[in-house]
C-alpha cells in the first residue's frame, strides 16, 4: 500500500464521497488510488474551479470538500478559491502534488522552474490547522 492509497482510505473513513480536481503528472498515483476506491473523481478544466466546487460541497454538507491539484502552477491557480473558503470558514481540504526529488534537476523539470515552485513558500497565510 502506498501513501496515495492510505490517504484515499482515510478520506473514505472520514465520509468523503467526491474529489474534485485537474489531473497532472504529479498526482497520478493519487488519481489511480481514487479510481480503485469507492470515491467519485470529478474532473474540472481549471484548478480554481475544482477548489470552488470542493468549497461549495463543504458549505452544503458541513464536511470538508476535497480538491486535488497538480504541483506548481496548479497549486498557485487554486489559491484564490482556497482564500475564499478560508475567509468564509468553509471546510476544505486541498491536496497538491509535488515533483519527485529524482526528477527535479533532470530533463523537463530542469527547464520548468514553475513546476518546482515551493507550495510552502508561495502560499499566503490563509490556512488553519486542526488541534
Question: How would you describe this protein?
Answer:
The chain has 131 residues and is α/β, with parallel strands linked by helices. It has a single domain, classed as Rossmann fold, CATH 3.40.50. The protein has 6 helices and 4 strands. The chain has a 4-stranded parallel sheet, sandwiched between helices. Helix 1 crosses helix 2. The chain is globular. The chain starts with a helix and ends in a 9-residue tail after the last helix. The relative contact order is 0.16.
List keywords for this structure.
Rossmann fold; 131 residues; globular
What is this structure's SSE topology?
Elements: H1 3-13, E1 18-21, H2 28-35, E2 40-43, H3 47-61, E3 65-69, H4 73-87, E4 92-96, H5 107-111, H6 119-122
Parallel strand pairs: 1-2, 1-3, 3-4
Summarize the structure.
By secondary structure, this protein is of the alpha/beta class. Helix content is 44%, strand content 14%.
Annotated CATH topology: Rossmann fold
- The top-level CATH class is Alpha Beta
Rg is: 15 Å
Q: What integer is the average pLDDT?
A: 84
In oligomeric terms, what are we looking at? single chain
How widely separated are the two ends?
27 Å
Structural class: alpha/beta
Helix-strand string:
HEHEHEHEHH
Amino acid at each position: 500500500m502506498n501513501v496515495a492509497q492510505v490517504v484515499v482510505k482515510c478520506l473514505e473513513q472520514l465520509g468523503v464521497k467526491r474529489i474534485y480536481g485537474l489531473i497532472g503528472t504529479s498526482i497520478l498515483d493519487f488519481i489511480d488510488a481514487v479510481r480503485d476506491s469507492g470515491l467519485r473523481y470529478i474532473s474540472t478544466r481549471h484548478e480554481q474551479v475544482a477548489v470552488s466546487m470542493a468549497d461549495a460541497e463543504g458549505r452544503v454538507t458541513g464536511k470538508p470538500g476535497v480538491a486535488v491539484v497538480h504541483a506548481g502552477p496548479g497549486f498557485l491557480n487554486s489559491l484564490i478559491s482556497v482564500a475564499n473558503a478560508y475567509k468564509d470558514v468553509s471546510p476544505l481540504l486541498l491536496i497538491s502534488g509535488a515533483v519527485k526529488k529524482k526528477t527535479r534537476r533532470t530533463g523537463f523539470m530542469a527547464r520548468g522552474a514553475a513546476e518546482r515552485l515551493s507550495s510552502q513558500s508561495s502560499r499566503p497565510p490563509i490556512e488553519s490547522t486542526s488541534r
